[in-house]
Automatic annotation (TrEMBL):
InterPro entries to which the protein is assigned, alphabetical: BP-dependent_transpt_permease, MetI-like, MetI-like_sf, OppC_N
Stated name of the protein: ABC transporter permease
This protein's record includes keyword Transmembrane helix: yes
Membrane topology note: Multi-pass membrane protein
Provenance organism: Kitasatospora misakiensis
A matching Pfam family: BPD_transp_1
Cited CDD domains: TM_PBP2
Compartments, record wording: Cell membrane
Keywords of the record: Cell membrane, Membrane, Transmembrane, Transmembrane helix, Transport
Length: 313
């Protein structure tokens, strides 16, 4: 019996080799960096979320106070002496001040000048101090020595005391003059922080590699040094914003900051302090608004500091 071999077409067999296997789409790996990690941490931080919500609310109130009150704090028909020092009620939540003006309306409108001073001062201080600190730290040598000695002149002047002296010489002030005065006295702190951060970063490997590849000094400074050195400046600026708002309130309380017919929380506190025993509500509500605002910015700054500090990870 002979074996027969049938020659025919073979059934197609599935080729399971890896070469012909369908390619699986791989998810792009997330590029790790200080800023992306910090953003993830901030989203998970309840302190940051609460602080950011309060700050956003305050910024909206300062920008558009008409959303929160229909009244005007300085209109001729807004104040009535017949309502002088009346206590809070269902119709007027914060009561009236000595001039018969609605305290709630004035508190809402007072947020504008107080927050303008804080934000504008912080921007001026950050820009001037960061740029000069970047220049001093990167150049070094005689440039660093001259800028450092110049900075020490302003750094030796206390913020509040210097502000009192300058504002008393300028006379009547507003939110913008107060911001300018505090910026003149406040930039040395940012300068020192930025200078130290640049000095610690300019000898890192990525700077040496960029220089070996022929990158210009300007490109190295703004493309490599600045993004890696700016983190501590942002932290200090966020915390200092609340300090500047408190300083404006102190200057206005002393009568040398924002002055009538302008309105700010410090000015309201100054007017109400002499009648605290007779009408405590006139003092408590603007004081509470000031405290909450300062606390909100400090919470925001603390959360940013924790997110940007690698030692706390």
């Amino acid at each position: 019996m002979s074996d027969t071999i049938t020659v025919g077409s073979e059934a197609p067999s599935e080729d399971n080799s890896p070469k012909n296997a369908p390619e699986k789409k791989q998810k792009p790996e997330r590029v790790a960096s200080l800023w992306t990690d910090a953003l993830v941490d901030l989203r998970r931080n309840p302190v940051f979320m609460i602080g950011a919500a309060l700050v956003l609310f305050l910024l909206v109130m300062a920008a558009v106070p008409q959303l929160f009150t229909d009244g005007s704090p300085n209109a001729n028909n807004a104040c009535d002496l017949a309502n002088s020092l009346k206590r809070p009620s269902a119709e007027h939540w914060f009561g009236f001040d000595v001039q018969g003006c609605d305290v709630y309306t004035r508190t809402v409108w007072g947020a504008r000048n107080s927050i303008i001073v804080g934000v504008l001062t912080t921007l001026l201080v950050t820009v001037v101090g960061a740029l000069l600190g970047l220049l001093a730290g990167w150049k070094g040598g005689i440039v660093d020595s001259i800028l450092s000695r110049f900075t020490e002149i302003f750094f030796s002047i206390p913020l509040l005391l210097g502000g009192m002296l300058i504002m008393s010489m300028l006379g009547k002030g507003n939110a913008y003059t107060v911001s300018l005065v505090m910026a003149v006295l406040g930039w040395p702190q940012i300068f020192r922080i930025m200078r130290a951060s640049v000095i610690s970063n300019k000898h890192n490997d990525y700077v040496m590699a960029a220089r070996a590849l022929g990158a210009s000094s300007a490109r190295i400074t703004f493309r490599h040094i600045l993004p890696n050195a700016i983190a501590p400046v942002i932290v200090v600026s966020a915390i200092s914003l609340g300090v500047y708002i408190g300083a404006e309130a102190a200057l206005s309380y002393l009568g040398i900051g924002v002055q009538s017919p302008e309105i700010s929380w410090g000015l309201m506190i100054s007017d109400a302090s002499v009648r605290f025993l007779a009408a405590p509500h006139v003092l408590l509500f603007p004081s509470a608004a000031l405290s909450i605002t300062v606390l909100a910015f400090i919470m925001l700054g603390d959360a940013v500091r924790d997110a940007l500090d690698p030692k706390l990870r």
